[in-house]
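Quick one:
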Amino acid sequence: MYGNITQTVSALWALLLVTASPLVLAQEAVRRPIEIRSVEISVAPLAQPRAFLDIEGVEHSADEVYIVELRGDFGEIRAIPVEIYIGNYKVEEYGGTENGIYFKVYDPSFFDRLDDQPFAYGFQGQRVKELELRFTPNELRPFARIELPKPMSETKAEARSDSKGPESRQE
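Output:
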């Protein structure tokens, strides 16, 4: 008799956890607000030119990439992903760093278009809060010049050739 009750209670708990977990994560994200403490912008040459579309849909070619790093607190790794906005522009793709997140920009007119716009964040298509910090790239010019890390495939190829020893290298 108790076996059926235990199974039913366990099933109900599992159902509750599955259906309530997105709500719990969203509430946790709201309790721990997103914070952007600083912005850093660097520029790096590209190994090969990259095509991109500007805001009007006209294709251009970029020889360099701008790396925009937002330093701050962006929630827990396992939480619902945060959406970052600059004015009305939604940052569609970004990566994580030790201190925050970064995204790439190929169109230099991006900086003039969004200069002095406020940062905001949201979750699952819902804009939650506008932050006090504003995006002011023109105050950060000139941007630091950096070199992009080599792709993992190149690094592995170099490691394989180095592991064969000096006699295998042609000088």
